[in-house]
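P.,

For your records, the input lines for the assembly:
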Amino acid sequence: MKILVANPNTSTGVTDRLLASGNLVAGPGTELMPMTAPRGVPYIATRAEAAIGSAVLLEMLAEKRGTFDAAIVAAFGDPGLGGARELFDFPVVGMAEAAMLVACTLGRSFSIVSFAKALEPWFAEIVAWHGMSGRCASIRMLDEPFVSINDVQDEKEQKLVDLANRTVSQDGADVVILAGAPLAGLGNRIGDRVPVPLVDGIQAAVAMAEGLVRLNPRKAIAGTYRRPGPKDSTGLSPALAAVIAHKDA
Amino acid sequence: MKILVANPNTSTGVTDRLLASGNLVAGPGTELMPMTAPRGVPYIATRAEAAIGSAVLLEMLAEKRGTFDAAIVAAFGDPGLGGARELFDFPVVGMAEAAMLVACTLGRSFSIVSFAKALEPWFAEIVAWHGMSGRCASIRMLDEPFVSINDVQDEKEQKLVDLANRTVSQDGADVVILAGAPLAGLGNRIGDRVPVPLVDGIQAAVAMAEGLVRLNPRKAIAGTYRRPGPKDSTGLSPALAAVIAHKDA
Amino acid sequence: MKILVANPNTSTGVTDRLLASGNLVAGPGTELMPMTAPRGVPYIATRAEAAIGSAVLLEMLAEKRGTFDAAIVAAFGDPGLGGARELFDFPVVGMAEAAMLVACTLGRSFSIVSFAKALEPWFAEIVAWHGMSGRCASIRMLDEPFVSINDVQDEKEQKLVDLANRTVSQDGADVVILAGAPLAGLGNRIGDRVPVPLVDGIQAAVAMAEGLVRLNPRKAIAGTYRRPGPKDSTGLSPALAAVIAHKDA
Amino acid sequence: MKILVANPNTSTGVTDRLLASGNLVAGPGTELMPMTAPRGVPYIATRAEAAIGSAVLLEMLAEKRGTFDAAIVAAFGDPGLGGARELFDFPVVGMAEAAMLVACTLGRSFSIVSFAKALEPWFAEIVAWHGMSGRCASIRMLDEPFVSINDVQDEKEQKLVDLANRTVSQDGADVVILAGAPLAGLGNRIGDRVPVPLVDGIQAAVAMAEGLVRLNPRKAIAGTYRRPGPKDSTGLSPALAAVIAHKDA
Amino acid sequence: MKILVANPNTSTGVTDRLLASGNLVAGPGTELMPMTAPRGVPYIATRAEAAIGSAVLLEMLAEKRGTFDAAIVAAFGDPGLGGARELFDFPVVGMAEAAMLVACTLGRSFSIVSFAKALEPWFAEIVAWHGMSGRCASIRMLDEPFVSINDVQDEKEQKLVDLANRTVSQDGADVVILAGAPLAGLGNRIGDRVPVPLVDGIQAAVAMAEGLVRLNPRKAIAGTYRRPGPKDSTGLSPALAAVIAHKDA
Amino acid sequence: MKILVANPNTSTGVTDRLLASGNLVAGPGTELMPMTAPRGVPYIATRAEAAIGSAVLLEMLAEKRGTFDAAIVAAFGDPGLGGARELFDFPVVGMAEAAMLVACTLGRSFSIVSFAKALEPWFAEIVAWHGMSGRCASIRMLDEPFVSINDVQDEKEQKLVDLANRTVSQDGADVVILAGAPLAGLGNRIGDRVPVPLVDGIQAAVAMAEGLVRLNPRKAIAGTYRRPGPKDSTGLSPALAAVIAHKDA
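Structure tokens returned:
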């Protein structure tokens, strides 16, 4: 099966990290297709950037539709996930969503750990959007500058280990989610230095997406995720406008 | 004072309705400045359209910044409100937000009534985002086609009255919010046909925006609404890119 | 328009503070009418005193009814607010209520800061009564004696600044509410020493009351805030007994 | 042991009902001491009346303090309970509180049934105040006039049975609380006509009060129910003023 | 009346502690009947052991049914309580349940204090199951080895006092529950060293059980606690199999 | 990989249904190993039976440990799941858990549909235990006798379709979970008669278990799911006693 890894950030280095990490767990016969946002910011970190990235993500999925079996929204705050699930008939999974759902099978509560303080409000909002606040022990971020978004996981490795351990000892986390596309793959290196299971967002998303393709759920034609009726628009990307206008057959 | 009424829908007829309704309650010396989205859809009704509208709203505010004292996100689901509050230093109020806050001063719980079933998921999500689900008795929508978004409030007037009354008798609503920019001004015509207070979103937003300008709160330099640091971007509108890059002085 | 500032505490010095602070933001044409409780305690600080003050507040509003356009319950725990909203047909706003609603437009969560530990349980209960616990980051009180209720804001100014800053750095407050009638006006002096917006209860209440007068909502004749039917009573103040008996025309 | 049954309503007929019902379950050696409110309304039914009754209840307990081992706030909405628990060192139990706590031992969720629609908002608020909303399946009230508060339980007996049965079949109630002092004793007559356990507020309160006297908990000198420091007051009943001023030794 | 104290732990020393503590508050005419689990673990401390103990508790009650008026599940996590309430027609009270309900009458929130860290997850789950999480300020456990389960309350007395005091000063507890059957009776010795009321689980359970016997609620024949229909089984204890098969008349 | 399908019901016909359904989605190389409870009831339907089944499930896993890579608790209420996750180091997934987690990726809220009213309380408790109540639109059960637990899905097929459709039209379900081991495989037959995605518990569990094996999370040595220390026991199955005593190496 083919799974689109749609990175709504513009940094291709992050896309590379995502693919490498996802391929560590992908089953035989699964092909991960990388895609990097053509516009936006190098890495989404705030509510404003998430708003921009949500629209870009929809354009990306509209552009590539028909070439894959399932899609992953490959930024931790799942920008555009709800809209994507409305518009399209293939399964779509968010990286935050998948990480939290997998974490639920491994412990009573999870903590979310990442590398930049600016991410916290956005992450907190996506946790709430998914109805997972009751399972979330804490969200902890490093609060210091870093050199490069592509290599932040190497630069801050020990500090992220320490932060993860603090969520266990102080916040009661049973599981730690290493959040943010730039941290993809970190868990495989540091797993033996944290005493609880670690969850890597892209790996969790690959596992969930493979499962969904196999379960093969029908597209809703009722409920809040049925496809909206056709509508005209102005100034949108041609592919997205076509989907919204039902001219995408 | 000058208040920007930023309509993230592309229908100018709706903008006209908003201005007319808002001016019924604006205080002496308040000027409402209309602005209609230059791209997007005629009226936002789904999660996908709200994602698109959120990004457009940020572009609109960036474009006009410096020419007004406060801004209103003039669509009921408040697209882009969080991001706007991060990026800019003027007060920004959402129509859903203002309607719900005013409703809280008039009753134990409010219901939200509008004209199209497609709006319900989006509205439910904005209620939850504002932490107001506990005060919301119900969200009820008409579920039938309408001729024109500009005149839907006239076409469906009696049906909306009936629906509002049902929220009072069946859902226990103490207050009814007539939601959605296309219903602006309707409350003034039907108020005596519903036995509880009605709240009009744009009127509530004008009242709240005027209050905020007078209270003159400082821009946060800490917390989750401090302005994010400067960041490069690709392919955004020049005005918004300048704001994100801190090149907007 | 005329707005009654009904202080359910018996200290006139506090009433003076309230008027002075409220007048800093009142619009042109707004007259704030002061009223101080004729019986009760100098400043309400506990559940027991709030129970007493609630009844006194109703007597106060009954006494002055017909001479103003809206009323403010001018103690932070909003004693008697619910009952007042049932009995009377003018808009009534509580100081805690208004402060929290305004704070909601300025941040994700607010903290409440005040000068006496005894106030915390009462404040926590009014936050919950308004359904605002989910937006409240913390309630922090000084815990030390003070010389005079009328001048406590001067005596403790720096300690209150420090406490406000702690709610930002430790509790994640996006907004700080300076709570309690005796702190009215303090925010205008210390605003530049706290990195997030400060909300002054009486100022927020004046802004909300002005807005409500302009929005002119109808009195409910259904729902939980419709006026109760006439009832006899024993031993109540004549004005309040007349209102309860529907003999107040 | 002596238990004060403090009825904050002014109707002595209701007090008689309370005593008769409570004595059906009081243990050997327990004496129920009746007390009827000297001022207020015949039966408290609204938020405004509850505010008045809360203050009266405090006066009543202050008046009789020292003559009993525990007190019952003998109106279903528990007016004044929080304040009483602060001021006094004897155990105090509310009728709503006791009924809900006992109901929790008998089922997953309870419904509250009573005779007058006006009571619903007050009851809903006391359920929330006690943190019991999650256990409350529904609150259902008759909505029709009655002849006499003293005899309403006889007049409406069959209608209350029908209403109780509806909470079981439609709302999923495992237990039904017959709420309101005027319904005291009704459960003993209709128990075999409702298929789930019935809880009578005064009987539950007597059982809880007896238990508390036997458990003999200490008066808190820390936490939110420690006794407030002494305070002057103006215009309160002499007994209550003495308690507030710590001149009650 | 006769009350079965069914200890689902296999340690008879703990049963002795429970009886001694319960008898301190039992009313005249109340006989506490001790029973110790015939199989299982010396003291239940984990989810796995609670699962085992739940089944054993049902066997114990089935074995002794008909010889008592009410039963107490005499381990703090109330193993088997829900199932017991379905199967049997006598009142059953859990020790955690009773302690929390009594604590609710003594303060806004309670903390739970015990002697072994392993107990925390189980206790947290029973608090949630009872819908009491909103009233629970904290759960604090000692985290160090002890010599004997029978005497742990003596060995750790001062450390438990210190821990209880921390819940008051740091977590805002108004009441402290000394949890776990091995701590039965400790409260009577240390009450004057903690500034808020202490609740002893077995004493609270005895008080609640006595009250329930006196209130004499009917067995539900509707709702979620009606008795399940007869069912065959394989390999269960004869007494429990007979109850499940309705062959226990 | 080998996945143990541990059916805690004693009916082998149900085990056969589970295997057949699970094999429809199992990936290449996955072997499902069936196991049927050696004692207990034919199908668990109540809190009491779930308590018994929880203990039996632990015995089953202890018996077969070492022969598989992951285990599925193959009854919808997930009996024994928490305890199993403590005791063992292989991944364990519950059928209710997996169904709800998968449903979360397909819609805003799910409803649970099954064949016997007795199941509702147990199912409601497992939804709450997993923290999923906020995502659950409703739980609806048929309420009528059936001939055979092995064939109930054939006998009631049309009635279950109708019930599922009611959850969509009346409760707002975006997804329907067909709950209970006896309904395994039904979704594949009726999917085109319900307008939203259907989730089959065993299929969801197989997908989640396969994903977990591939993600290969470490066994926690901290947090609430670390393995408890060794403990003696009396009268348990030898295999389970050995695990509890750490004599299982």
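Two observations worth noting. Chains E and B do not touch (no CB pair under 8 Å). The first strand of chain E starts at residue 2 and ends at 7.

Regards
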